[in-house]
Design a protein that fits this description.
This protein is α/β, with parallel strands linked by helices. The chain has helices at residues 13-21, 64-72, 94-104, 132-150, 185-189, 213-217, 227-236, 238-241; strands spanning 3-7, 28-32, 50-56, 79-86, 108-116, 175-176, 223-224, 248-250. The chain has 2 domains: 3-164 and 243-250, Rossmann fold, CATH 3.40.50; 175-225, Alpha-Beta Plaits (2-Layer Sandwich), CATH 3.30.70. Helix 1 (13-21) crosses helix 4 (132-150) and helix 2 (64-72) runs parallel beside helix 3 (94-104).
């Protein structure tokens, strides 16, 4: 059985969760859904493969950019597991949204996981997660999924969420301060191509998805989002984020 992981992980939390789940899977090939120049429509998955699809949750849904790239991949009836990674507030309808896209791409969903990772903007929420304990638990989830994939049981579990779901919109748009050197790394690595290499101090708001990759990778920490907006958002979700959430397996 060939195994794959399709991962959209702008700031690393989703990638870490995916790696933990697939830790005991054989020879996992990674397909990075954050690369804008990849021709995803040319990717065809073997029908007998097992595929993990992992995306972050932005405001209760998956990034449309990632879903669109996932939808272009040819699933050919391969089995897959969906992973929604969220910052300890709620993943809401992310998994059913991913499920609908998986069906469009002709994948068979046999499992789903919700995993907690450090909030990409308000870092005190779920700080340090997934931690060592999380990773051990997620690895156990992965082993159970692998066992199901190898068995005759291919039923789709009941996946939480409601339809119709809202579509993802733009989030907070990071900007560069005066210390920006114009190195262009943010433009090079932006999944949405929202930053011009020639004018990397500015961000095209209509393209930015608020994924925070540019903030997380800036070598001199010259990019950030509006601190007042962050403070307001932090207070708004404080009650929902105060109690640590558990990772969940739907098998």
């Amino acid at each position: 059985m060939k195994t794959y992981q399709l991962v959209f992980s702008p700031t690393g939390g989703t990638e870490k969760a995916a790696a933990a789940i697939t830790k005991n899977w054989p020879q996992v090939r990674t397909i990075d859904l954050s690369l804008p120049d990849t021709d995803y429509s040319s990717i065809s998955i073997e029908p007998d493969a097992l595929v993990l699809v992992a995306m972050p949750c932005f405001g209760g849904v998956a990034p449309q950019l990632a879903l669109d790239r996932f939808a272009r991949i040819k699933g050919n009836g391969a089995t897959c597991v969906l992973v929604a990674v969220y910052g300890n507030r709620a993943y809401e309808n992310t998994l059913v949204q991913m499920q609908d896209t998986a069906q469009t791409a002709e994948f068979r969903v046999i499992a789903a996981v919700s995993a907690v990772a450090e909030h990409s903007i308000i870092h005190q929420y779920a700080a340090g997660r997934p931690n060592a304990e999380d990773c051990e638990e997620l690895a156990r989830f992965g082993t159970k999924i692998l066992e199901k994939a190898a068995s005759d049981s291919k039923e789709t579990p009941e996946i939480p969420g409601k339809r119709p779901y809202k579509t993802s919109g733009g989030g907070m748009v990071p900007t560069a301060n005066a210390s920006c050197t114009g190195c262009g790394l943010c433009a090079q690595r932006c999944p949405a191509q929202a930053i011009s290499p020639e004018h990397c101090k500015t961000t095209e708001k209509s393209r930015c998805i608020g994924c925070m990759r540019c903030v997380s990778i800036c070598p001199i920490h010259a990019r950030s989002v509006n601190h007042l907006m962050v403070s307001v958002a932090s207070l708004a979700i404080k009650k929902a984020c105060s109690t640590p959430k558990a990772n969940e397996l739907f098998l």
